[in-house]
Amino acid sequence: MSTTTSELEVAHGGVPAGKEHVYSQQPVLSARNIVITFGRVVGLDGVDLDLYPGEVLAVIGDNGAGKSTLIKCLTGAYVPDSGEIKLNGERVSFRRPQDARDAGIETVYQQLAVIPALDIASNLYLGREDRRKGPLGSVLRMLDKKGMEKRAGESVRNLGIQTIQNMGQAVETLSGGQRQAVAVARAAAFGSKVIVLDEPTAALGVKESGMVLDMVKQLRDKGLSVILISHNMPQVWDVADRIHIQRLGGRAGVITPETHDMGEGVAIMTGATKLSEDAP
Amino acid sequence: MSATEVSSASAEFARRQHSPVQRLQHQLHGKPWLSPLFLLLVAFLAFYIATPTFLTASSMGILFQQTAVVAALAVGQTLVILTAGIDLSVGAIMVLSMMVMATLARDDGMPGIVALLIGVALATGAGLLNGLLVTRINLPPFIVTLGTLSIFTAIALLYSGGSSIQADRLPDTLNFLGEGFGIGEFRITWGIVVVILLYAVIGFVLSQTAWGRYVYAVGDDAESARLSGVPSMRILLGVYTVAGLIYGIAAWILIGRAGAATPNAAPDANLASITAVVIGGTSLFGGRGRIIGTLIGALIVQTFAFGLSQLGVDQQWRYLATGVLVIVAVAIDQWIRKVKA
């Protein structure tokens, strides 16, 4: 696998120490040359991205660098104009969010995509409700409310969230951090391969941010791959294994918290310095 | 930060005492039909004290018969309003459907059942048209149904030549829902039975099925619903189509109730149906409300009309009261939506 390793060095500007074995595997998710335009505005100008099993890949970049656009392309919310996305080595093309979810990619969007008026259990199962067994479910199409409520409670507790007890509570009565926890719990309950979190701590206080970051680490420890979009550099350097830097609709490079400090990361992000490995 | 820290903070929060007003707000948040139910009971009591004949079996039978048509329309209107839409074409679709049924079946021109099915199918198609304009061309529901209100009204008048068709020229099938049975003095028409069935079926669908849950989700936040995998456009299209079907059934009830098919029947059906939904606690902003509230709302409106007429009071007081109720209902809804944990 020596050729693969050298390719990786070029593509990633470093691999976390002691984890070389992970990065010699096939990426869970890889994107090549993703291009998307909105009218005359170029959203993404040929972006590559690789996500490996059991890692937290942070995506950082200035406003308008294309972070959210990139993950929307990876999760079916946008359909890229061109480019290739592979999941476990197989080429995929998502036409809508449901396609990506069916393939095992769960997304927690910046706007959370929870329904305030519905309760927690309903939100967790929204779009993939379980029906009752027997003719009540198959003929009358009745929902298995009790079962879903019970399993929703388990999903939430699995993430170590103590503050939410009543799954019948409307989401709008929750705090920002609790809502985020519901959204993450939903992703964790159904995401079999990849979980994408778009700015999960942007609207949260220090304590609640800590809770969400703990959840992110737990997801990784369970073997899931996580893409974390964030503006918060200390948080990124705290949880990320590798950091994908997005700049001007393209990838400026990939670094690790060990090889580069925050200042260097921000310098690459703003274009003050260029990552030599990735220089054309 | 440890988990125990968080849980102790939340326990402290839970211990914080809620004032009685906050507890009321919480109750109403979960059960928005509580305040209209309270109002209905107060109205019943007030009219009973003012005129004891109000609460007799025969009076109640008349009240329910008078409520039937608006109550049926309001089922469809509730579905549309739950999706944060509004349907101004309810009355027009109903009248068009009714005139088509009656004209086709007049003087045994066509078997009653065939005319009925054509009329209901036409109403369903009219709802589908509303839905297509809302979802495919992305027009606001208010504008779409304002337009189709005029279009369907005009077609109904042109098609019927503006003249009424009396019940004696119509087959029994079309008049059937005006007939009924008495339990003592309490007379129930088949139309009332159909209305109760409508509420039961739609109530079941809204509370027990995924489709019902999606109706609420789309109305509360269409984009979040889409990102959660809810087929928002298909749900919206379905809601307008089912609403059309219900207006067709309301047309059948109206023939039985009015004893005739009249092209200018039920002129205030649009506003009455919206009023019933809003007074019943369903939010005009979508995503919140219960179908049972709509039934209570329809009963409230009709109770005021019926009670005041029994008292011999000028009918303008009824409109005044209805207007106040609508404003109060929306104000309560705004307050409920600000609920905190």
From TrEMBL, chain A:
Keywords carried by this UniProt record: ATP-binding, Nucleotide-binding
User: Does Nucleotide-binding count among this protein's keywords?
Assistant: yes
- What GO terms are given for molecular function? ATP binding; ATP hydrolysis activity
Per the UniProt record, the lineage of the source organism begins with: Bacteria, Bacillati, Actinomycetota, Actinomycetes, Micrococcales
Annotated ABC transporter domain ranges read 29-273
Instruction: Report whether Chaperone shows up as a keyword of the record.
Output: no
Q: What CDD domains does the record tag this protein with? A: ABC_Carb_Monos_I
What is this protein's record name?
Answer: Sugar ABC transporter ATP-binding protein
From which source organism is this entry? Answer: Knoellia aerolata DSM 18566
Entry-linked InterPro entries: AAA+_ATPase, ABC_carbohydrate_import_ATPase, ABC_transporter-like_ATP-bd, ABC_transporter-like_CS, P-loop_NTPase
UniProtKB/TrEMBL annotation, chain B:
Task: State any single GO MF term.
Answer: transmembrane transporter activity
Name the Pfam families for this protein: BPD_transp_2 (PF02653)
Q: What kind of membrane protein is this, topologically?
A: Multi-pass membrane protein
Primary localisation category: membrane
Q: Which keywords fit this entry according to its UniProt record?
A: Cell membrane, Membrane, Transmembrane, Transmembrane helix
Regions crossing the membrane: 33-50, 88-105, 112-133, 139-159, 188-206, 235-255, 291-311, 317-336
Entry GO CC: plasma membrane
Protein localization = Cell membrane
Q: Does the keyword Transit peptide apply?
A: no
Q: What domain of life does the UniProt record list for this protein's source?
A: Bacteria
Keyword Cytoplasm found? no
Note the InterPro entries from the entry. ABC_transp_permease
PANTHER family documented for this protein: ABC TRANSPORTER PERMEASE PROTEIN YPHD-RELATED-RELATED
Question: In its UniProt entry, what is this protein called?
Answer: ABC transporter permease
User: What species was this sequence derived from?
Assistant: Knoellia aerolata DSM 18566
